[in-house]
Amino acid sequence: MSKRLSNEKGSLLMITYMIIVVFVVFGAIFVVSTGNDRLFAERQRLSTQALYIAEAGIERAIYDLREDFINDPTPEWDDGNINGMMIGPNTASFFTVSYTGTTLNNGSYTVELKNVAGQDDIWIRSTGTLNDITETLLVYASMSNVAPWNNAIFGGAGAAGGMVNGNVNIRGSVHILGENLAPTDLAVDLGGTADLIGNNYDGLSASLLAKVPALPTVDFNGETVSTLNAELRVKHGLVGLSGSATAGNPDVFGDSEKETIDGSFVTDGFGGSMGTANVYSDNGWSNNYDLGDSVTFPSLSDPYGAYSTYQAYLKANALVINNAADLAQLSSITPTSSFSYSNANGSISMDGSGNMAISGIVYVEGGNFNMSKQGAATTINYTGVGSILVEGTSQIDLNLVTPGNSSYPTNIMAVMTPNSIGFNEANIDVMGLFYAEDTVVIQKQTDIMGTIVTNYFDMGTNVPSIFQVPETANNLPAGLIGNAPVYSFRIVSWQKQ
Fold first, then answer.
1. Cα(391)–Cα(120) distance, integer angstroms
2. Which helix (H) or strand (E) holds 66?
3. Full-model pTM
4. What is the domain range of residue 114?
5. Where are the beta strands (DSSP E) in 157-248?
6. Residue 104 is assigned to a structural domain of this protein
7. In total, how many domains does the chain have?
8. Residue 330 — φ and ψ, nearest 5°?
9. Are 422 and 290 members of one domain?
10. Which of 25, 36, 40, 433 is 20 to 30 A from residue 281's alpha carbon, by CA?
11. 270-290 pLDDT tens trace
12. Does one domain contain both 140 and 157?
């Protein structure tokens, strides 16, 4: 029995069989795994290809949306026509675009659009299909007018030492080119309680607020809030923020205003004692200037049409005032002034009771255009739509406003000069558009409703305020320099569904 139990004949064969079985099992697992990997890789390939097809649909929609803004004299995405295609505007659901020729790489795409109420923003949804695989992309796109007059302030060349300096409250977009600045120069140098760029009308008096249109609203962080859609752009130069000076403000949940700015695009970065710590922007603070060379500073010496300069065009198409007595009158206007000048191109008049009327284009040749208070008479109310080019300088040292509620910018005045414009009276309200190819100086606590375009700003130390009125971009007076819109198309978000 013992001998029989110790007999190991045949054991090797059994072990061999077991090894073979193990190899067969592992081989089967390997074959199955390889097959699954191959199937998975194939599906991944098809999925990636379907995603590329969906991207093609997105790009096609982006092209049509951009072309609609470029070619339409009154561009908007909610007018039922996008680049010649009848697309019913709908803010509640997506509308399928009737594209032809959507086949691509043995697959196809479908594109849908959904408008955003009250804004030049839109949702794009594109689905790419290949065999039984689909991939969907959802894009939120925005088109904005980045022309000079669609800002609170727009700055050109600048000079070393701070193109925008002082202690100022700016509500609305800020766009600085700084073409003469080095990367280490300060394009903006603000301190104290300055608010470089705010996104609401916080601090605006009730009397001025009543004169302008209500701000549009957006859904932000689950709240419906009013907004100026404010952005900060600086092409060249640093943005210096010291003390409590900020770009935007922290979001406050539960109020009716948007505090953070919509975007910051500053190539050379932020400086000052606070720098990026005081930047509150929806896209952070590290984004470079995004418009390339598409936006330039408008100069009165630029050629225009058949004219050698834009200033020559204005003179040829304006009421030209050059009589010595008339020039003396325009250099010292007060609320009690009485005069009337007009022809087929333009007109300007005062009635002696603080009321001014303006229309068309007025050209002040060889003189200045100054306004100041006289005793208790501290206000000029103006009506009409007009532009004034003054060859000399302009000084506005009194309240210059439009009369009545909702009166601006249906009434709107623009003042232009190749030299400087100054504001040197405390606690005055001024409504209008102001272009100085040299300098704008605001020395005291002045509230300006509108836009300032200049090569150099001096904001002083007494906290003036500038409030952008978005509707001015749609109500620019004839003859205003740089009045052509410049549109920027931006992808706000891009996500795979």
1. 38
2. helix 11-71
3. 0.82
4. 46-144+490-496
5. 164-166, 169-171, 174-176, 186-190, 195-198, 217-220, 223-226, 231-234, 238-241, 246-247
6. yes
7. 2
8. -75, -20
9. yes
10. 433
11. 999 999 999 999 999 999 999
12. no
